[in-house]
Each structure stands twice: as C-alpha cells, then as structure tokens.
Amino acid sequence: MSYRLDTLAIHAGQPDDETTGAVSFPIYQTSTFRQTEPGINRGYCYARTGHPTRRALEENLASLEGAQHGVAFASGMAAIHGVLSLLRAGDHVISTRDLYGGAWRIFTKYFAKFGVEFTFIDPGDPFTIAGAIRPETKLLWLETPSNPLLKITDIAACAAIARRAGVRTVVDNTFATPLLQHPLALGADLVLHSTTKYINGHSDVLGGVVITNDDALAADLHFYQNAIGAVPGPQDCFLILRGTKTLSLRVQKHCDNAERIVEYLERHDAVSRVFYPGLATHEGHAVARRQMERFGAVVSFELDTTLEETRAFTRHLKLWTLAESLGSVRSLFCHPATMTHASVEPEVRKSVGISDGLIRLSVGLEDVRDLIDDLEQALSVTRIPARSAEA
C-alpha cells in the first residue's frame, strides 16, 4: 500500500520491535555484532559499516523524499564530504555563488587542493549553467532557497540542462525540507539535508543525509560512509527519527510565523530590505510558487548600518537567540558576515551581497506576537537610519 508523507514520517523504516513490541524504534546501543561464523553474519557486523537504528533513519528519510536510498552521516558537512568524495582530481563542479559558508570552505579550501575545480555562478538564468559546463564537469551543486539570501533556482530547468551534458545535479534541500520541495521529482540526482536543522528540529543533535534513486550512486556513497567513518551514533539517529514524526506540524507553524514576521519587517522604516521568496517582489517568487509548497521559515533582512551598529541591535534582542544553525523550535538569529559565512573572503561576501547589516532569522514556534514585539523593541532602541522613500 502507498502511504502519504505524514504517515511515512511516523512509520517508514520502523517496524514494530518483535522482541518487546516497543512502539518507539529501539536504540541499539552497540558498536559491534555477534557473527555466527567468520564472514557470515545476520546483516550487521560493525556499527560503522551498518547499524539497525541508522538503517531505520536512512529508510525513513529516503521515504520522505520519495526515494529508494538514504545514506546518513554525522553532520551536514560530513554529508557534503560524502558527495564530493565521488569526485577525483581534474573534475569540475558548478555551484551557486550564494551558498552556505561551510560548503564554500570545503569546496575552496579543502577539495580544491586535491585538484577539484569549482565555478560559482548566479543560476537565476539557468542557461548560465550551459555556458559554464566543461567536458570535465561532473556535478551541478544547487542550494534553493540559498543561504543566506534566499535566492531561488529553477531545479527542473537546471537539472535538465545538466542531464543533457551528462552532469549530475545535487540539491541541498535543508531550508525547504521534504515537506515543501521535492528535488528528485524535479530532476535532481542527489538530495542533501543537514538533518541538524528542521528534520531534527530541536537543536540537540548533529546529522546529515544524502538521498538518491540511483543504485550505483547509493553504493558508492555507502562505501565512502563506511571508509571515512563519519557516521551518526545510535542516539543521534533516534533523536532525528523522533524529529521526523512532528516535521509536518512544525514546518507548517514555522511557515505561518515566518509570513507574519515578513509582513512586519516589510513595513518597518529601519529595515532597508527583506529577503523572502514568498514576497511577490522577490526575483525568484514565480519559480518558488511553482516548485515549493510554501516558502519556508528562514527570513533575512538588511539594516543600513555599520558592523558596530548591527552588533548593538543584536544585543537588544531578548527572545531571539543569537546562535549558529536554524530549523529549531526556538527562534534563532545570526549575523552571516561574522558567523555562518565568516570563512568566506570579505570581497567574495561583498560581491554576493552579504553586507555587515544582514541578519538571518530562523523563525521558531513561539507566539509570533512575542517575536514581533521583541524585534520592535530592539529596532526602536537601536539608532538605525530610516530607509529613504525610494527604498
């Protein structure tokens, strides 16, 4: 029988425990497994190679993306490393210019030294991808919505161009979650999530996953997962599985709150610009309406301020928590220039559009009126120039 996503989130990969009847899938807290004879086992031999709690998580997350294979890693960065391990010296990757600072760092400061080349483009016009493809191009790496400027990429159009050239498309779907966007159905070959974020949702675990329908890619990823060893432990897997059960309820509330926050920020004279694909004025709004169910709960906005003035504003916020990460039940905010994108060179940040006055919000599940009140008091006590009538 075929089940819908909310049902899969609770049941997929998690059969009833035959020994005890436990309704919550067990944490198998073991690092190794008894084997009946040398070279013969019951499916598991060593926890790095395979583990029943991790297997349950991988099957569960794959089902949410409508896929056959999920490969879980110890963090989102470990998942990125796993995908890049598919490459070899001389290979070429095309990526979006606006992307997570950790991805930029591992691209330009780690894999580049092993001879992998990267080209960064603005994929607002998918045909720029066609012009960037070389004979040695192996991957097209997309983030949509992007981090932190919430740029939107047309996945179907870009993946079609890549496929015609024999290039595989990877989509980081962390911001959208499987609830709001389905990259594999739009033509992507691999989907990546930092499960630390919305999928777990409680700021109490690190994790990552790569999902695909390609048997050969899945086999390679499992090989690198085992060989490199950056795997989540059983407690981590259990916590992420706990998160998937409420993912649908949380994401809808996250989006409800974010839309109210956007309305407030759009009206405030001290806010020079709001970045959110749900706005009709957003350059990617039409594409986002077509490929997303809703527009997510990450909101970025810009203050026309110096770095010190921006820091002063952040000190006045009481309910919003200054912290790395996103997707938590608790509302978080960060200053990309000095936090998530600090590893990106200043001139690159500036060229992308990450200013000293940019703030990224991860809208949580509190009463949205309290969140707005906190933003209001912080903006009112910080001396921020009002935007001009032309803004």
What does this protein structure show overall?
With 391 residues, the protein is an alpha/beta fold. The protein has a domain at 248-381: Aspartate Aminotransferase, domain 1 (Alpha-Beta Complex), CATH 3.90.1150.10. The protein is 36% helix and 15% strand. The chain is built from 14 helices and twelve strands. It has helices spanning 5-11, 52-64, 76-84, 101-109, 127-132, 155-164, 177-180, 215-228, 234-244, 247-267, 285-291, 307-316, 346-352, 368-381, and strands at residues 69-73, 92-96, 117-121, 137-143, 168-172, 190-193, 208-212, 271-275, 298-303, 321-322, 332-334, 358-362. A seven-stranded mixed β-sheet has the order 1-7-6-5-4-2-3, sandwiched between helices. Helix 1 (5-11) runs antiparallel to helix 2, helix 2 (52-64) packs parallel to helix 9 and helix 12 packs across helix 14 (368-381). It is globular.
Stretches where pLDDT falls below 50 for ≥5 residues?
none
SSE succession: HHEHEHEHEHEHEEHHHEHEHEEHEH
Could you give the count of β-strands? Answer: 12
CATH class of the domain at 248-381: Alpha Beta
CATH architecture of the domain at 248-381: Alpha-Beta Complex
**Shape assignment:** globular
CATH superfamily membership of the domain at 248-381, which one?
Aspartate Aminotransferase, domain 1
Strand order of the largest sheet: 1-7-6-5-4-2-3
Helix count, DSSP H or I runs of 4 or more residues: 14
- What integer is the average pLDDT? 94
Provide the structure class: alpha/beta
